């Protein structure tokens, strides 16, 4: 079975893990800080603005806490987003307000965001669908003009940028995901960015029990009573560790090659699927936009997508759709809302396999199977 996602790991990552074992320290430590520094260099930000955490979901929850969201507050986010985003809002007692997306890019535009903003809007949370930067520059301008905080869910966009500005650094807060299905993988892990230095320092405290300073061996000789606690506010433990940081550091050094291979696969898909009747391909990137190429999605006529996915699965090609509309999930209390573009896109879109483990023959297998399925449905084209 050709899989949608597959991590690109090798001997370098194994060697890095072995080095951590030999150090006899696998917890939060020097390799964690080194990874933060390298990732800061990758983004073009100061290292003290970043906190390596155990997963991006924890970062989204921490972001809503840093903003002090609560009862009566609203957060605008695209309905086609990961469930963690809405959960992070709802868990604070705030209300997720779902907005439309562009039918082709599956990213919200600044106009989509603006139409959902109300006097109660305290934040906007934007996903970069498939690694496409989207309308983030205009969305950031809109949020600044209206005094609204902007959280970027950059889980899919670890190497995306616009004219050299890294996606994730347009807003006030951002998170990246390094789980087993992402482009840069640690097994589990994430990074949180805060534009404001004080907010970043607070994020670091809250990510480690709320401690103003660590207590333990690292404080011995610095403080006369290094075991005592200084807890100015309640936190939790969501920091990353040196094992996952070591893997992440190697992956970061390999990231340009991993993304380059993903781009090659996208170009193969574009070439081999061009002109297939009834099939719409991802739109081209605007000038100056660079993607991480996390998803490659195609769109077909309404009523066909599920059958096509089943036939591809029978042919040994696993596909999926990310992400089902959140306004349809009852727990968020928005099931009466109508978002026609999001709903139609969710019924027409299919994500094809895309990862560096695919060779050209695999890509040809996928495209041949898809062409065959579409050929059998000639006349039932995408609109």
From TrEMBL:
Protein EC: 2.6.1.-
InterPro entries cross-referenced by the UniProt entry: DegT/StrS_aminotransferase (IPR000653), PyrdxlP-dep_Trfase (IPR015424), PyrdxlP-dep_Trfase_major (IPR015421), PyrdxlP-dep_Trfase_small (IPR015422)
One Pfam family from the record: DegT_DnrJ_EryC1
Domain of life: Bacteria
UniProt keyword annotations, A-Z: Aminotransferase, Pyridoxal phosphate, Transferase
Keyword Transferase: yes
Cofactors that this protein relies on: pyridoxal 5'-phosphate
One of the record's GO molecular function terms: transaminase activity
Homology family: Belongs to the DegT/DnrJ/EryC1 family. L-glutamine:2-deoxy-scyllo-inosose/scyllo-inosose aminotransferase subfamily.
Name of this protein: DegT/DnrJ/EryC1/StrS family aminotransferase
């Amino acid at each position: 079975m050709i899989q949608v996602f597959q991590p690109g790991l090798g001997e370098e990552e194994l060697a890095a893990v072995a080095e951590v074992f030999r150090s006899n320290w696998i917890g939060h430590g020097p390799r964690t800080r080194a990874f933060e520094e390298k990732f800061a260099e990758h983004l073009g930000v100061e290292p003290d603005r970043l906190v390596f955490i155990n997963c991006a979901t924890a970062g989204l929850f921490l972001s809503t806490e840093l903003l002090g969201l609560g009862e009566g507050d609203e957060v605008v986010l695209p309905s086609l987003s990961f469930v963690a985003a809405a959960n992070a809002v709802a868990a604070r007692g705030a209300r997720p307000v779902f907005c439309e997306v562009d039918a082709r890019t599956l990213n919200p535009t600044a106009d989509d965001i603006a139409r959902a903003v109300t006097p109660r809007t305290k934040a906007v949370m934007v996903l970069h669908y498939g690694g496409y930067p989207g309308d983030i520059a205009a969305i950031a301008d809109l949020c600044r003009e209206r005094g609204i905080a902007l959280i970027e869910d950059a889980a899919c966009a670890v190497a995306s940028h616009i004219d050299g500005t890294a996606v994730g650094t347009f807003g006030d807060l951002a998170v990246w995901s390094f789980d087993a299905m992402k482009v840069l993988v640690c097994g589990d892990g994430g990074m949180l960015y805060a534009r404001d230095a004080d907010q970043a320092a607070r994020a670091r405290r809250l990510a480690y029990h709320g401690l103003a300073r660590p207590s333990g061996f690292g404080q011995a000789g610095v403080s006369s009573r290094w075991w005592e606690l200084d807890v100015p506010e309640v936190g939790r433990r969501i920091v990353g560790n040196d094992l996952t940081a070591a893997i992440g550091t190697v992956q970061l050094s390999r990231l340009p090659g991993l993304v380059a291979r993903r781009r090659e696969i996208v170009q193969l898909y574009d070439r081999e699927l061009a002109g297939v009747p009834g099939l719409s391909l991802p739109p081209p990137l605007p000038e100056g936009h660079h993607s991480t190429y996390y998803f490659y999605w195609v769109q077909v006529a309404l009523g066909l997508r599920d059958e096509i996915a089943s036939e591809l699965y029978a042919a040994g090609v696993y596909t999926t759709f990310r992400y089902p509309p959140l306004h349809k999930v009852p727990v968020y209390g928005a099931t009466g809302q109508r978002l026609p573009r999001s709903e139609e896109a969710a019924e027409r879109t299919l994500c094809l396999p895309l990862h560096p483990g695919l060779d050209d023959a695999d890509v040809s297998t996928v495209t041949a199977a898809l062409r065959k399925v579409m050929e059998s449905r000639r006349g039932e084209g995408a609109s």
